[in-house]
Amino acid sequence: MSRPRIGRRQLEGIRANLTDRDLDILKSVATNRFLTSGQIRRLLFFNKPTRAAAVRSANRTLAKLADLQLIDALKRRIGGVRAGSSSHVWSLAPAGERLLEATDRGDRIARRVREYEPTPTFLEHNLAVAEVCLTLSEAERRGDITVLELQREPDCWRAYSASGGGVARLKPDLAVVTASGDFEDHWFLEIDLDTEPPSRIVRTCFRYVAYQSSGEEQKRLGVFPAVVWAVLSSERKSTLQQRIASESRLRPGLFGVCLLGDLLPLMQTGMAPQENGHES
Length: 280
Hints:
The chain is α+β, with helices and mostly antiparallel strands. It has helices at about 10-15, 20-30, 35-45, 50-65, 95-105, 120-140, 200-215, 215-220, 235-245, 265-270, and strands spanning about 35, 70-75, 90, 145-150, 160, 165-170, 175-180, 185-190, 225-230, 255-260, 280.
């Protein structure tokens, strides 16, 4: 049985009793579409004295927001029931969307209320992209990297004129600008979970070449970002590197492939200047 809709006055009363961190949780879930309890804990409860204290505080807060009908837990858990409370996956509930709309009318927050249970493939990819964003946030907090800009979908998508006419769209998972010394590094990131054949990855690479040829990104930035595929296994890394290198029409140096765990070190050091990722 569905719960009754929360009225405007009731929602105003709920809003008056929310903390800044409560609102930050709602905004983070809305921006990322889905987040696990563990990811929310690492993102917003990192200042607790111990991990156990952070877990308890995060769980209490998430339970409160769920009871207020502002967020919903998916039926599916990441890692199964044995993974504990950190395995819960949260999405924004309709009342949470309405509350954010009333609170942040001037902010560009992606409102993403789910209408159905996501497929496992879609959910795992979404959480993997969110994990990359969280890793960058944690690294910046430690002083290991400076993130000047981070665009998620659909803000990171790029429209350009297709060769045959009409409008084409490039849809990276993330567009990021980082700083290192006197340099800015520009990145298009693709998070690959080995769910698509290499031939489809190659077709996506050709779309990047078409977008680079359009000159649209260079007009805005003066450079074209490095395109990096972050993968789960060394075997997948080798496969994609070989397939990309075997395509003579793909421009050398534009694409990089690395293990997901090596993405942060790569972004800290930057790619070689000939890979078009630097701006002084």
